[in-house]
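Q: What residues go here?
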């Protein structure tokens, strides 16, 4: 049993594999394609419109991961091409990690919430409470003054 996310990603992967030329599709073992067919979601219907640029497609992250693995394992024509692609993936991962570190840096995260200390003297105001008798008398005096 595979997760819902994975089974939906397999539907997208199969949709993209159907767009490949026969020559490239033959590079991928039939066992893998059969596995994808067996575990794909039966209810998910992706809306993939290929217009020449695969980066413009709105694909699930899991789909991108599966496609990257297929490309590295089966579709790269040479070892050099495979290494170049792996380097690109490492650079993207490093840039993403740097972005996360800048966004969620614990040192900066709490900076804005810290209250700056004010070196001026602080004074405490003492409020005298009137007892109940004085309050009643003061109210009566105000009523008679009017």
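A:
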């Amino acid at each position: 049993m595979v997760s819902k996310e994975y089974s939906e990603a397999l539907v997208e992967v199969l949709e993209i594999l159907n767009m490949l030329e026969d020559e490239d599709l033959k590079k991928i073992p039939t066992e893998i394609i059969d596995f994808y067919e067996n575990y794909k979601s039966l209810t998910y219907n992706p809306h993939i419109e290929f217009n020449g640029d695969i980066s413009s497609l709105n694909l699930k992250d899991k789909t991108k991961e599966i496609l990257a693995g297929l490309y590295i394992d089966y579709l790269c024509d040479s070892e050099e091409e495979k290494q170049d692609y792996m380097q690109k993936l490492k650079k993207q991962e490093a840039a993403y990690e740097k972005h996360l570190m800048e966004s969620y840096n614990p040192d900066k995260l709490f900076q804005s919430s810290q209250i700056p200390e004010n070196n001026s003297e602080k004074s405490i105001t003492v409020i005298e409470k009137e007892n109940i008798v004085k309050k009643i008398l003061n109210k009566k005096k105000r009523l008679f003054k009017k």
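A: Context that may help when evaluating the design: The chain has one domain: 4-109. The CA atoms of residues 76 and 84 lie 10 Å apart.
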